Amino acid sequence: MWCLDDGSGHDLDGDEKSHLYKQYLRIIHKFCPTIFVMENVRGLLSSKYFDLIIADLQKPNICGERYRLYSLVQEGEDKQEARLEPLDYLIRAEKFGIPQRRHRVIIVGVVERIEKAPALLDEAENDCTVGEVLSGLPPLRSGLSKGENTDSLWYEKVSEIARRNAGLQGMAHVPIRKRLKQQSATPPQKIAAGRTALQEWLHDPRLLTTPNHETRGHMLSDLERYYFASAFAKLGSRTPRDTEFPPELAPNHKSWRTNKFNDRFRVQVNGLPATTIVAHISKDGHSFIHPDPSQCRSLTVREAARLQTFPDNYFFEGPRTEQYKQVGNAVPPFLASQIAGIIADLLDARSGNSKSVDR
What we know:
The structure is a single chain. By secondary structure, this protein is of the alpha+beta class. The chain folds into 2 domains: 12-124 and 335-352, no CATH class; 130-331, DNA Methylase, Chain A, domain 2 (Alpha-Beta Complex), CATH 3.90.120. It has helices at 19-31, 50-57, 130-134, 151-165, 196-202, 220-236, 301-307, 320-328, 333-352; strands at 35-41, 67-70, 90-92, 103-111, 143-144, 217-218.
């Protein structure tokens, strides 16, 4: 097993964050894959160990083979990895048809006997947005987390919220939808036209219902903030800062209005890609408020899954908290598919053993 040492005698064995990375190195070293794809968070780039990680990935495996390292978004000088800067390995998912600003480090390692370099990912012509991807999913109401929880009571209470918020910050009154349920028995429809590849990727006409599309319950005080935030975003195409919330909507948190947590209540804006879907969505929906004020709620597992580009027929099992975690921890499947296509082309090149490293 490779030892993580930065050359100064500092062994990273005591650093919990290094353990998974070391296991990845161990597997590469032991099983000698022809190609590997390593994914990690953006924070890896600022780590003082990044150069060490690159050096370790280039070490020969147990079969005596070394790897060239490539970016999927940036060519290095002389078409090789030696001239790449750390940021060159950063993939901004929204540039490649993913409706989410998810930035991750992805490194492709290819054994030296394959001298062909992987192709670069093809950039999309324009960003895919929250509104485009959530279109076609049945509208729902939130639950009421305390006391009675009926469709009629929810409509009554949230309609009162809408009336109280009318005129705040210049916002128009957005009526609450009637006869909404907490879950839908109808199948999802295709996303908005113009995203043909993603449409086909997500849609399954065989579905008779929409899997994992059920809302969770919220306190009325949070629903009031959700309504304000989503109505604000509908007017201004951005989520409000904490300092823009009316005083009566301020939560009882010491950090409120310190500008320390400007995204504590954050709307996923219709006309923009979503912010990064993270596992923390399992805790509460405050940072993942639905853009439609008339539904006044946070995102369902299915909506988060669509923003992550899971096909509509992908069913998440376990408690809803665990379902959210599964969604937030994943690599967007539509992006993974694009990367897989590039890797498949490289594997096809093995028989030809191309002598060119041109992309």
